[in-house]
Fold:
Amino acid sequence: MLKFTEITLPEPLQRAAAALNYVSPTEVQELTIPWLLENDGDLITLAQTGTGKTAAFGFPVLSLTDIEKLAVQTLILCPTRELCIQINNDLASYSQFMPRIKTTAVYGGAPIFKQKDALKAGVHIVVGTPGRVYDMIRQGVLKIDHISMLILDEADEMLNMGFKEDLFNIMSHTPATKQTLLFSATMPQEVDKLAKSFMKNPHRIIAGNEHQGADNISHFFYRVQARDKYLALKRIADMSPKIYGIVFCRTRNETQEIADKLQHDGYNADALHGDLSQGQRELVMSRFRSKFVRLLVATDVAARGLDVDDLTHIINYHAPTDPDAYIHRSGRTGRAGKSGISITIIHSKEISALKAIEKRLGRDIVYSKIPGGREICERQLFNFIDTVERVEVDNAQIDSFLPAVYKKLSWMTREELIQRFVSVEFNRFLEYYKDIRELESTEARSPRDSREPRSKRGSEERYGSDKNNDEIKKQFTFKTFRLNLGYNVEMNKRELMRYINKLNVSRGIEIGQINIYDNYSLIDLDADYESKLLKAFNSNKYKGIQVEASVAAPAKKPKRNEQKSYRK
Ligand code: AMP
Structure:
C-alpha cells in the first residue's frame, strides 16, 4: 500500500494531508486518487461512507481546479444538508494551504439569499443538495454549463430520497464534455440505470469486498507510549466535537478511573462496569441513550446489554487480545447504514495483537497520527462556526433586546466582532493546546514479528516510524521548469501531471504550482530532481514534438502556513 506522500499531489495538498494526519491512503483513496489524476473518463466507485471517499474525490478535484478561472468547475451533489456541509468543510480542510480556492455549499432549509451571494461572488466548487441546486440553476444564479466535473455522492441515497427528477434536470444543464463521477454504497438497478443514461463507458472501482468487516466502518490505530494513552484519548475526543461513542477498557478499576478523569476534565462521560448496582447501570445507560453522556467508558461484559444504533466511534483503550472481541466491539458502530469509526490506541507491545486482529478482520487497520493542537482547534472552530450558521433565530424572543445590543457594539467593524466572538469561545481551548507536546511513541518497537503483515509492508512503515513523519515534514525546495508545451498541444494540468508521472523519474515527485500558457507551461517541481527531470524532458517527445525544458526561475520555497503552530 502507498504512503500518502507517494501519491503525486500538489504540495499544498500533501501538506494538508500531513496536517490531517493522513499517513496512508485508505483503500478507496488508493484506488481512486491516482486514477482520477491520470484519467478524464467517467468513474463509478462503490464505497460506503466512512471509508475516506470524500478525500478520494476531494484531493483530485482540488488538484485539477484552475484557480485563475473563477467560475464553477466542479459540482458535487449529495443527498442531505448535513453531508453537504460536511463535504464543504472537508474541502476547506484539504485546501487549507490553497487560500485562493473558493468553495460553497447550497442546501435547502437555510436562507437562500446568503447562498446566492456566495455564488454571485464567484466560486470554483459547489457542493449542494439536488433540490436547492436546481432552484439556483432555474433562477440563473448557478451556471454549470462549463463545469469539467460532476460528482454524484451517495447516488443510491439521492435516488431513495426522491431526487431523481432534480438530478435529470441538473444533468441537462451540464456540458457533454464533463467528467462524471458516481459514488455509491450499493448498486441497485435504479443507480445502474442512472449511470447508463449519463455516463460514458465508466471505469469501475470497488473498494472493500464481502469478506471484509463492514465497509462503512473505518479502522484506525494510534501508537503512543503507554503512559500517554489517556492524553491521546482526550485528543481523539476533541478532534470529533460530535463524538458519541464507547471507550472499551480492560478492568472495572480502569473503566472507573478513565471515566472519572474525563468527567473531571469536562467531558460528558460516565462508566459502565460490573461493580455498579442494577439501578446505577440503568441510569448510566439511559443517560447514554439520551446522548447526555457522549462517551461511555465500559468493559465488554457490561456493554453487552446496551443496544444503540448511531454510535460515531468505538475506541479501544488497548488492542483486545481476542480478535473476535474487536470485531464485536467495532460492529457496534456503522449500523443502520451510517458510517462509523473504530479506533485502537496501542503502545509498542500491542502491535502483535493488532496484527492478529487485522488478519481476522481481513483488512488493514490504518495508522493515524495523534492530532496536534492546531488541527484540534481548527476542527473545533469549524464545528462552532457551523453551529452559529445553523442556529434557529427566535426573533419574537430576542428582537426587543437587539437595538440596545446593536448600539453597544456599533463601534466595532464586522471583522472585529467576528474576532471577538470566536475568541470568547476559543481562548480556553487555545490556551490548553498552545503548549502541548506531540504524543507519538518514540520508544523502541518490539522486534519484528516473524509473520509478514497482510499487505507485506515492513512493520516500521505500517506501524508508523519517525522516518515516515520526517518525510511528511520535509520542506520541499522547488524549481520552476519551463516546458514548450502549452495550449498549442492542448496541455492541461491533469495531462501535465500524467506526463510527469510517465517520465518515471521518481515515484510521488512533489509538484507545486502549474501555469499553462499558449505556447509553454511553467511547473514547480522538487529541486532535488532537477538534473534527472531535465534529462528526461529533453530526451522525450510529446505528441510528436521534441520537448524542450529549462529551469525558468531561481529556486523558491513554498510558503509555509503563516499561522503559528500550537504544537511544540
Ligand atoms: P469519509 O468517508 O470521507 O467521511 O471519511 C471518514 C473519516 O476518515 C473522516 O473522519 C476522515 O477524516 C478520515 N480519513 C479519511 N482518509 C483518511 C486517511 N487516509 N487517514 C486517516 N484518516 C482518514
Remarks:
- The chain has four domains: 4-206, 217-371, 373-433, 478-552.
